[in-house]
Amino acid sequence: MNEYKELLFEISRSNRRACSLPQSDVPTVSLKEKFTEKFVREEPANLPEVSEPQLMRHYTALSNKNFGVDNGFYPLGSCTMKYNPKINEDVARYDGFAHIHPLQPTQTLQGSFQLMYELQEDLKVVSGMDEVSLQPAAGAHGEWAGLMIIKAYHETNNELDVRRKILVPDSAHGTNPASAVIAGFDVIEIPSNEDGTVDLEALKEQVGPDTAGLMLTNPNTLGIFEKDILEMAEIVHEVGGLLYYDGANLNAIMGITTPGAMGFDIVHLNLHKSFSTPHGGGGPGSGPIGVKAFLTPYLPVPKIEKSGEEFVLNSDYPLSIGRIKGYFGNFGVNVRAYTYIRTMGGSGLRKVSESAVLHANYLRHRLEPYYDSPYPQICKHEFVLSGNRQKKLGVRTTDIAKRLLDFGYYAPTIYFPLIVEECLMIEPTETESKETLDEFANVMIRIAQEVEQNPEIVTQAPHYTSVKRLDEVTAARKPVVRFE
Ligand SMILES: *Cc1c(COP(=O)(O)O)cnc(C)c1O
Question: Which residues are reported to carry the modification N6-(pyridoxal phosphate)lysine (predicted)?
Answer without folding.
Answer: 273
